[in-house]
Amino acid sequence: MRKTEKSSKSARAKSSKVDRITLDIIENALRNARNEMDAVLFRSAMSPVIREQHDGFPMIATADGRMVVGQFGSYIAGFIRNWKRGINAGDVFLCSDPYKCDGAISHINDWLVLLPIFHSGELVGWASQFGHTIDIGGPVSGSLPTDATTIFGEGTRIPPIKLFSSGKLNEDVLDLILNNSRMPTMNYFDLMAIVAACRTAEKRVRELCDRVGKPLYASTCEALLDRTRRAMSQLISRNLPEHKVSFEDYIDDDGRGNGPYKMKLTIWREGDHGYFDWTGTDPQAPGPINFFLNEEMFKMFIGVYLIMVFDPQILFNDGFYPLLHVIMPEGTLIQPKFPAALGCRTHALTRLFDVLGGCLGANTPELSTAAGYGTSPYLLYNGYDEALEFFHLMEISFGGIPGRPFGDGMDAHSWWPLFENIPSEYLETYYPLTVLEYGSLMDSGGAGFFRGGNGVHKVYRFEADGEIAIHDDRDRSQPWGILNGLPGSSSTKTLVRANGETVLLPSKISQVKVSKGDQLIYRTAGGGGWKDPLDRPPERVHADVKGKLVSHEKARRDYGVVLDSQTLAVDIAATNELREKMRSSRGDSSTFTFGPVPRAIGLKNKEKRGKGQAV
Amino acid sequence: MTYRLGIDVGGTFTDFLLFNERTGAMQLTKVASTPADPSVGVLQGIRKIAKQAGIKANEISLILHGTTVATNAVLEGKGAKVGLITTRGFEQILHVARGQTPGPLAGWIIMTKPDPLAPLEFTRGISGRQDARGRLLVALDEAEVRVFITELHQAGVEALTVSLLNSYADPQVEQRIKAIATEMYDNLPVTISSDILPEFREYERTLTTVMNSYLQPMFRVYLNGMREKLVAGELRGTMSIVRSDGGVMSLEAAKDRPVNTLLSGPSGGAVASGYIGELTGYNNVLSFDMGGTSTDVAISYGGKPNVVRETRVGYYPVKSPSVDVRTVGAGGGSIAHVPLTGALRVGPQSASAVPGPACYGTGGTQPTVTDANVVLGYLPPMLLGGEMKLDTKLASEAVSTIASAMGMPLHDAAEGIYNIVNENMFGALRLVSVQKGYDPREFALVALGGAGPLHSNALSVLCGSWPSIIPPIPGVLSALGFLHSDIRNEFSRTVINTIDKMKGTEIKASLETLGKQARHWLTEEKIPARQQEIHYQVDLRYHRQGYEFPIDIDLTWLNGKHNFAPIIERFKKIHQQNYGFNINHPIEMVNLRAVAIGKVRKVELKKTKGRGRDPKKALVQKHRIYCQGGWLQASIYDRYRLRPGNEVVGAAVIVQNDSTTLILPGHVGKVDAYQNILIWPVKQGTGRKA
Q1: Cα dihedral A237, A241, A246, A252 sign
Q2: How many Å lie between the alpha carbon of B105 and the closest alpha carbon of chain A?
Q3: Per-chain mean pLDDT for chain B
Q4: Pairwise CA distance, residues B542 & A390, whole Å
Q5: Is the pLDDT of residue B172 over 90?
Q6: For the stretch B190-219, what's the b/e string if a residue is b when 16 or more beta carbons lie within 10 angstroms of its beta carbon?
Q7: Nearest CA in chain B to A26
Q8: Which of A532, B96, B214, B562 has the fewest CB atoms within 10 Å, measured from its CB?
Q9: Rounded CA gap, B452 and B276, in Å?
Q10: Whole-angstrom Cα distance, residue A594 to residue A579?
């Protein structure tokens, strides 16, 4: 456990000089700057993953590296501590090695850019953004081999380096890096777009310093941090239990036939301090699903979850870090030892939220949500097109959003903020494939008073020979429901060969050969339901049946709603009778409704779990 | 026949501005809107203003009207029952949308997503299928189509959209389905996506087309009502409707494409601001139109509003050429509150017209921006014209809830509210300026809307945009803008190929074809050839980038083979300006476009001679305001008694019927020959920028 205590006392003393309104005004200005970073990145980047899907995360931090605006929390303080070769105006840093930046980024596809912001010779802050680059070498196109056993088997790692040194681009290093990519132009574009986004933030922060003066800008940042700290202090006292509450959930497998993997979190509070203990989480996996969790980032996740309902307009920041204490045992799935493979960490990263949500919800389930599709499902497809040009596609899919106190979970939507799907017309224009079907899968959302969203149902036909890779989870487990809400359904991937042969694919696999005319049916998991489906107004169930989001059968089976088989009209009397019968025949309910615990896979190459890999 | 009439049909009121082309005189009036059939209110107003001016309605030669009918229908969910025919396997295209949930992390917890404008139960997927080049993969099954259309008609759909995957590449299948539907039910309005938006990205194209269908039946009623009244002989002039992009089109054209009027109202304001800017000698202006619940901001460069191809109406991203208007939930009625974090927030919730700000004394108790303005003395309790008395005591009570929540004195809290709402509007102004590579310091700022002039000086301080221009009639400026709108339409097609694989002559030929369509349309709109203008644009991006820039081009640039050099040069300049980098990489052409413009004769406003600098004849009374943490002496002036040449030194409050202007200390407001007030910092003087 690392120490993150800071002298918040001196910060508070300083911040008292800032008038409250200036504080709110600078907060607005910084929020605008952060939105501007996104706009610049999304519009100028080239790979669909960043540009159409928005897999990129911006941040603005104080001179000592604490995040004042952003969403993933700051990792800059750790970087500053470790960097010994000077930080000058005009420098731009680049890093992609999770082990060299305390897990600020968690797989080597994410390129992290850090830009120190100087104002008349003085360091006043940092701008940072990272984005998922499409290929960074290694044995498999896309650089996410599902069977890697060390990080050396995944691709090119970039330790922290100066991409620009005092304003000058380090072309030799850039050439070296790009030379290792299958898609050098795309990476170059994306990298320059990330730098452009950081420069935007740099401009805005300098303008703010011009406008209010450097000292006031600095103390305003402190005051913003302090404000979040005070708000969080209240939220912790109100929402965290004084006794220990544990929650556990599973990742299906590690891509090498091992699994399932348990993630377990225990939380409690002492005064206004919160404790988050990962003890009981399974040891690290031989395969690449390990998630090197950055402690600051985890604190940010906790904070965001707590505060979302109370002041969605707040500029969320690092200020509350000293109030949270995290225990992350080494050698586990969330704190693997170098050089464990990390490429497919997405599943653990997302499951973390299910487990965190479960813990926080145990005390106040009415205010909590069910579980969602619980990962970030990818399809990768590469080969040579008609013109014999190399192509490589990476597409991020979505799934069922959890049922929530606010309403139904959205069908086939992104759990990750601001991501968008790739238009099918875009896919068909630039890649040799045809999208035959794209929508949400009927009945896959868990029933509830507010139902879970349906998962994605998408059918592709490949129009060129090539290779595909699948990255998905919730294929053996189901997203849980809450307060009598039912679990969402699991995911499946089915390859239908041109000759009609059907192959059920595992949720994590790379280098699957496909031929022209083969079809892939990609279905992601549905979200869990929120509260009792027997209380859902029958007319809402009726509307879902008419819209083909829920079947006639499921309406009866899970919601107790009887519809006329011809007209689909609701039979009120029969519905009331059926619901009464269902209520009285079911047993006591617990807070959460889980699907069956996934069984161990036990494939032939099952490896020994536990110790982690020695160097 | 020397009268021109601008009409702004809003949700609550309809504004009328009658302009005498011979004398330059203007008449204003206002009537309550009649949402069930807006033509009723329009006609009432026309009679009223004609009577007021002592003329006959049939002396009006040109009627230009803008409307928020479409926007409100979408925001309030009051459009038609739309049926959608799409490609099989994509029936949930509107339901799944782009799959986006809002930020930050966990933003989905509080997301609201409306049901699709074409309900799932009225959506049918056909088996016919085209590939990305428009080639048929599966032929159209006409029998199946007929079954679907019959089902949808029986289910009572009032309008039909046909939007098929890849139809932008070849419209024939959609056109055939439209022909079948029209043959089956000639009363059913049918819109096909390749007609409305022949560009790729199926969700946006389908949404925009469905939006058109959603509005079509209502527009038929509305515009037929107008036409009947025209035909009945009471009116004789030409009547046109203002489009979202600031141009105008005939009522007939609007019936086919109501989606193009979604931002009709705000675009008039932007056009008018550009015009006011030109009049005062500032061709580059930022403008903000501050109303009760929200503020619309826009930018005009070189006298012309910036036109973009996508806009957002509520949840929906609509791809229709529109003035780049951004709306922020900051208006006079925006409510201030202090959440758990102890921060001061203003909006986006609004007290609207009912119950309204606390100071109206109509039952509102929550503190609004207007209440803060009353507490600070910026809005004097007795408004000129005396239509409404503002209750200072109720305003103070409301604002004091904020003061106690924040532990600060009443007037500081009020000033906080004033400053925060300004900052929110400033954020929106940045989106249309700095984010597009424009430096706001090179722009003047025009205030519109009843509430605008109270905040204009302060916003100019934030933006560095001088002068702050307060037009003579800020409350009805949109209607003035309509009088300046040219006839406008766009004709485009998608090509998608890298420039190195294209021939300039072929692109030129395609553009000329679009240009012919554009001329044909203008001729149909009865624009004489000498007033017709065609502009050409190509949309470019680096190969595989996702978003393109429209580049204005001259067709002669395309003479000779592969001669794209001037176009590439322009593209690189714009890319550099927006993103700060360029690269040696193939450039891709995405869309070709011909923009049809029919010029209308501009109205000439009347100039008045100066009467010296001293404004004392307009002085109403001495007053005081709270500003920058203290009380200041501030005189109240009557706007109608101010004369050109007068200089009002801040702090001062200038009152008129539809608005109140605040001049901050250290600033001076100068009245120009057109009765605009131009506010400058005292020390900056009135030096003009290039």
Answers
A1: negative
A2: 5
A3: 88
A4: 18
A5: yes
A6: bbbbbbbbbbbbbbbbbbbbbbbbbbbbbb
A7: B423
A8: B562
A9: 15
A10: 22
